[in-house]
Amino acid sequence: MAKTLYDKLWDAHLVQQNDDGTALIYIDRHLVHEVTSPQAFEGMRMAKRQPWRRESILAVPDHNVPTTDRSGPIADPVSRLQVQTLDDNCDTFGITEFKMNDLRQGVVHIIGPEQGATLPGMTVVCGDSHTSTHGAFGSLAFGVGTSDVEHVLATQCLVLKKSRSMLVSVDGAVGPGVTAKDIVLAIIGKIGTAGGTGYVIEFAGEAIRALSMEGRMTVCNMAIEAGARAGFIAADEKTIEYVQGRPFSPRGEKLEKAIVYWQTLHSDQGATFDHEVHIEAASIKPQVTWGTSPEMVVQVDSKVPNPDDEADEVKADGMRKALQYMGLKAGTPIKDIKLDKVFIGSCTNGRIEDFRAAAKVVAGKKIASNIKLAMVVPGSGLVKQQAEQEGLDKIFTSAGFEWREPGCSMCLAMNADRLAPGERCASTSNRNFEGRQGQGGRTHLVSPAMAAAAAIAGHFVDIREI
Amino acid sequence: MKAFKKVNGLVLPIDRSNVDTDAIIPKQYLKSISRTGFGPNLFDDWRYLDPGEPGMDHSKRRINPDFVINQERYQNAEVVLARDNFGCGSSREHAVWAMVDYGIRVVIAPSFADIFFNNTFKNGLLSIILDADVIDRLFDEVEANPGYKLEIDLEAKTITTPSGDVIAFEIDDFRRNNLLKGLDDIDLTLHNNADAIKAYEAKRKQEAPWLF
Ligand code: SF4
To answer: Are A34 and A107 in contact (CB under 8 A)?
Structure first.
């Protein structure tokens, strides 16, 4: 029978099928960071357990680390304790960790692929919802809570129920100025933040195939914002080329054998999905979110929507609350929205390609006078190094941007990087929830090029017009 | 884990959809390395008028009288009644720990975000999915009747309203069984499946040696 990619990944990792409909699924790669792991390690210690397979684990502090000078200890004592706890746990349990001052440190979802720790066909978990990022490699990757982090530490497995499968096909080619970020925001706008609940999503179609691996990671990263358990894309030549020659990836005979397998990581002709969504790539324009949920998104050349036009009362009420929080009036053209801060980074858009795209817009220009802070935060130390070799840091700093150390930074504002109440930010991250970037802060999600252009103009602009 | 059989609890209505995990427990409290102590910060941004930081004496903060959790009639609630896509956003189990620490035993909504839903069961918190029209009715009843309680019986898979209406709910057997007995998932897996896991690994090493 024709199988979907999900069926193939599921079957390959099935340890045991139980009568009650659950299954025990084997986990190949376990990524760990400082925020969701301390209580799991504590549980292990209390039960006197050891990790089932410590070589499968890669740990890194990212959420709490400062993005400024790191020569001294972390200033905030609570953050310092959490990062120190991760260091101690990794040392005690014998787990590989890239510590804060390691060149390879970075956002956990950036470093997995960068190190070749994420490989096609793997099951990848992490105590972080954006683990879906790794699905870009034709792997089954999803976020779990701390209890499941502990479960994987102790047993290398998870008890799961198979999700339903959804195909999201983006057909045809996108127009100029339209990036992976715009594609995924348009998808979320169409299916909604709960549209993927209970599903895993396979992204397919010409526009997805045409994306680089970086772009595919951006798309899969935000599968969780559509409510999906996981998002993934079939492996192809690009995938196989990308993963080779990295520190954790296989070599020699093992690699040859792996490639033969990786070439099978796609849905078979005639495989059926529980639900299909088709989107015309040519209809997608640069996207900007206006509200407090990623589904509250419109095209850059349109206006802030009016709740009175929404028939569903609960929805209309949500829109009113969002407009009030965001300090916006219905009917305002998106391009008239003025900004205070700009953030370029995160596991959605913190890779080299993102910085190249932003730098291209910024080169030779200066940030607008109303922009209080524009910051660029590389996804990892290696991305930072690469960007510096290409001179991108100079382009940003000459334009007035700050060039920082790698980490999650203002994507969730657990460190010192945050918005003050009422401040408005163009951000390349993935969530625009209330308070996400700092209490009272207002977030608009956009692509790196759109964020860069907004920094220069001081308000949103249509990247296709510059 | 604490076993769950029956709860007869006061209902707290959270009348908005897409309540995300950042709203349930803001990120500054995620720096804790413990599983407890999050209760005073459940819905922190909505609950207090001044910004909160870990380590503060939260009883001294300015409360927001408009937010339901602060209203006299909802004190000591054990059941949360919610709208669509409750718990969306991050994987932080802290959101569930905050609810449990506050004293919540049951959450009822028309739909939940996947990871949150899964996390609740690991902590003895029962999540129940009901049809949107039933939820609508419950919201109306809670609003109209101060002291409104629901009796949730996991054994019988029923919810009983104060007027004696019985609403049946679905829950998968695996979760129900674990909750009823208060079983630890890890113990179960190690006890029942350790040999199967080892056998799987041995076979996998042959088929996919690059993974080891
Ligand atoms: S960059 Fe943002 S979304 Fe990504 S892991 Fe860090 S906090 Fe989460």
So the answer is: no
| Shared-domain flag, residues B203 and B142 | no
Average pLDDT over chain A, rounded to an integer: 97
Look at residue B102 in the predicted model and tell me its pLDDT: 97
Residue B72 and residue B146 share a domain: yes
Asked if A21's CB is within 8 angstroms of B54's CB, the reply is no
B191 and B174 co-located in one domain: no
The strand order across the sheet containing A29-32 reads A96-97, A57-59, A29-32, A123-126, A140-143
Name the residue facing A250 among B83, B111, B210 (closest C-beta).
B210
* ipTM of model over 0.90: yes
Q: Helix A448-457 vs helix A352-362: angle between axes, to the nearest 10 degrees?
A: 30
Tell me, what CATH number does B136's domain have? 3.20.19.10
What mean pLDDT comes out for the span A189-217? 96
Please count the structural domains in chain B: 2
| Cα separation, A63 vs B27, whole angstroms | 10
Residues with CB under 6 A from ligand 1: A 62-63, 107, 109, 128, 130, 346-347, 408, 411-412, 429-430
Confidence band, pLDDT 50/70/90 cuts, at residue A421:
very high
- The answer to whether A157 faces chain B, any CB pair under 8 Å, is yes
Whether residue B175 sits in one domain with residue B196: no
Distance, in Å, from the CA atom of A405 to the CA atom of A380, rounded to the nearest integer, reads 8
B117 with B48, same domain: the answer is: yes
Burial readout A39-48 (b: 16 or more C-beta within 10 A, e: otherwise): bbbbbbeeee
Residue B1 lies in a domain: no
pLDDT category at A221 given cuts 50, 70, 90 is very high
pTM, rounded to two decimals: 0.93
| Chain A residues whose beta carbon lies within 8 Å of the beta carbon of residue B200 | 15, 26
| Same domain membership, residue B207 and residue B138 | no
Distance A316 CA to ligand 1 centre (A): 29
pLDDT < 70: residue spans in chain B: none
Is B191 in the same domain as B119? no
Task: Looking at the structure, tell me whether residues B17 and B78 fall in a common domain.
Answer: yes
Give the range of the structural domain holding residue B192, as residue numbers without chain letter: 182-212
Residue matched to tokens 């049809």? B131
pLDDT at residue A247 greater than cutoff 90: yes
- Which phi and psi angles does A138 have, rounded to 5°? 75, 35
Q: Rounded CA gap, A13 and A27, in Å?
A: 7
Tell me how far apart the alpha carbons of residues A343 and A334 are, in angstroms, rounded to a whole number: 18
Sorted by sequence, the CB contacts under 8 Å of residue A21 that are 6+ apart come out as: A161, B172, B173, B174
